[in-house]
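::Encoded backbone::
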Amino acid sequence: MQEHFHFTTDRAKLQKQYGAILCFVSAQLSSIQIHLQRRNRHLLKQKDEVIIAVHVLGKLLGFTSERAWHRFVIGNLFSKDWFPERSRYNRRCRALGFAIKWMRHQRAKRGQHHAYAVVGSLPIELCHSARMYRAKRFRGMADMGYCASKKIAFYGLKLHLQVTDQGLPMGSVVTEASCHDRMAAETVMTQIPHPYNLGDKGSISQKLQEKLYEEYESLFGRPFEKISEFANPMHGNSG
């Protein structure tokens, strides 16, 4: 599919998406004080912000193959003479990994101004259910778990997320499948605390609610509760 992706992609839409990412990356990269030391900087075909923007665009489009993505970039965004060869491009992406993580953190911090955040989890199945008792993949990291929403047992991992009402991820952690949502909720929610958080009964406890409010002034309740309903008890405890 990825080999033929350029046949079904609107190039004008692709360029617009790339331009928006490049604009954001350029503004953020200028705030980073750390300067990468390189030899032969004058021989670089593209600046760091271009490399980062291209890398992020590839992830957004769902490319998992480095070879396929580099071929796509050469055919749709840049000519071969104006873009680094595949091995050099991949090395620069890895060298700029710290900058990409920093910018992701800065972007996620904007979620604190969104209306609320939702905390939840989803299963990462590593094999078919018929093979889960014999599976050896990721042994020591993965194990057996149960997904209540799908009502299935599975072998694998579990992804815990905190996402704002506008779809912006603020926190995440991957655990073994048997990890209870309540155990991972604090780790996810304290990465970038949001003042208003919603979750299901599997991830909420009174102890966690009190701790989040006392340490981060974050409220945590179920979706059908009004903010005032679980905010007032917290204010009562603090008074």
Notes: The two ends are 60 Å apart (CA to CA).
